Amino acid sequence: MGRRLKLRVSWKRWWPVLLASLLVSVFVLNDLFFPPDLNSYNATREMMDTWVSITVFDSDKGHAQTAMDAAFSRMETVVAIASSFDPSAEVARLNATGRLDLPSPELIDIIEQALIIFDVSHGTFDITIEPLLDLWRFNPAAETQFWDLPSDIQKQAIAEAMAVIGADRLMLTREPVSAIELIPGMKITLGGIAKGYAVDQGMQVLMEQGIQHALINAGGDVAVAGGTPSGQPWAIALRDPEVARYMFAEFELVDGAIATSGNYLRFFDPDAEVGHIMDPRTGSSAHLSSSATVIAPTCTEADALATAVFVLGPIAGVEIIDQLEGIEAMVLPYDDPLSVARSRDLGNFEMQKKDGV
Questions:
Q1: Which bin fits 71, alpha (ψ -120 to 50), beta or left (φ > 0)?
Q2: Which domains can be identified in the chain, with CATH numbers?
Q3: This prediction's pTM
Q4: For the CA atoms of 151, 263, 316, 245, what is the dihedral angle to 10 degrees?
Q5: How many whole angstroms separate alpha carbon 147 and alpha carbon 270?
């Protein structure tokens, strides 16, 4: 009888705990089978010479805003490291002195990924192309801009710039002290990869903040995660380079990134003859492609490979992409923008038209 009484006393003592556990289980199951409503939240800021927008789905507006603010802050950190024009930025200081000791982990990471793509692309993506770009930029102190100089003077200057271009000559060491060293006269630009890297960093922050469905668009460099809450992929439209209001293609992505490179919007000269994407092998503006779009697991890869494929052109560009696992591309030739070159499995990401529409 004493044991039975003791048992009853024990159950009375543990009943509140069991009840609380039962309630917790009910709440967990309720969230599992009947999750709280997710609403869409969006924020846009000017950054990296473009507009960067973040879209997230969350059940709490305050949490969504906190997550987006953290993502923007992380992207701004990358910009502060990778700028060639801000004298305080690591890249600007490296270019000014030719050497940077104790670079940030982010800068090392960007450069290491850039060197990988340099090798994969046979040198068509080269972050040491800055001296060549610098020739063509508008110089307010010059009486005559570079594009108006006689061709023999241009060729001589281009040859001198080409002599210090080649990412395989950049020295990146980790031991005993991490450092980046350039050969004399060499400068780097991360304009073809830093934006994609910043987007990846922003997306990583969103995931760390518990966001499960998100999209970041940095001027056409787009990363997505988790699809939409309805279980559908994110839909991403590709603008026609010839007709601005026409969508040339639409893609579907659950997780991953897409980026497009093209010379149809940005030129160095007033006559729009010298595009901003240069071929590091020739020193001239790349003219084989009208645009190049790459789909990849990360925006860093998509951003840099889009530039490389643009330079390589439709045939060689697609050949390289077809050798890379999980990466696809669409390239519009320069001389015939309606003739599309496509990688082998691009159709896996293309939005299927319904009812012939």
A1: alpha
A2: 90-181 (1.10.3980.10), 233-348 (3.10.520.10)
A3: 0.85
A4: -150
A5: 9
